[in-house]
Amino acid sequence: YEFMREPHYRQLLDFFLRHRGKFETFLHEDPKDHHVDAQPFGTGDGVATRFQLLRYFVEGGFLEPIREPKGNPVITVDGAPLAAWVLEPGGVVAFNAPPPTGAGLAWTGDFRFRVRFDVDRAEFSEFAANLRELGTMEIVSVKK
């Protein structure tokens, strides 16, 4: 941050201290990367009822589990919305009955990332009355 007024400085410092630097994690919603539309996350086999939400960076490329969905995603089976499921902790969809063999599972919704600060100290400096600056404060993803 090039400059912060006193209330913003106190808010950021309070947030940093409450999470004890890099010790505790928190949820971050990336403004440019927080939503998927009709994202495939599995194929029914007639037996399995639990499936991890997933998302691709590039279709057919790197696949990432989504462990922190935000709100209630829309779940479809072969393109038809389905209401007979429960969202379990960690982004696992538990269907009331196994999806049919070969049925494509997809979801639409928002998600967040579990992150933590990458440092244990924040070096603010006051360069003018009630104006502070902070060089960098990085966050890193936490994979479970």
- N-to-C series of helices and strands: EHEEEEEEEEEEEEEE
> What radius of gyration results from the CA coordinates?
20 Å
Q: Helical proportion?
A: under 10%
Low-confidence stretches: none
Summarize the biggest pleated sheet. Answer: 4 strands, antiparallel
Please state how the strands of the largest beta sheet are arranged side by side.
3-11-7-8
The number of helical runs is: 1
Query: Structural class from helices and strands?
Result: mainly beta
| Percentage of residues in strands | over 45%
Shape: elongated
Overall number of strands: 15
Distance between the termini: 30 Å
What is the mean predicted local confidence, pLDDT? 87
Describe this structure in words.
The chain has 144 residues and is mostly beta strands. It is built from 1 helix and 15 strands. The strands form 5 sheets. A 4-stranded antiparallel beta sheet has the order 3-11-7-8, with no helix packed on it. The mean pLDDT is 87.
Topology of this protein?
Elements: E1 4-5, H1 6-18, E2 26-28, E3 35-43, E4 50-52, E5 54-56, E6 63-65, E7 69-77, E8 80-81, E9 85-88, E10 92-95, E11 104-111, E12 113-117, E13 124-128, E14 131-134, E15 139-141
Antiparallel strand pairs: 1-14, 2-12, 3-11, 4-10, 5-6, 7-8, 7-11, 9-10, 12-15, 13-14
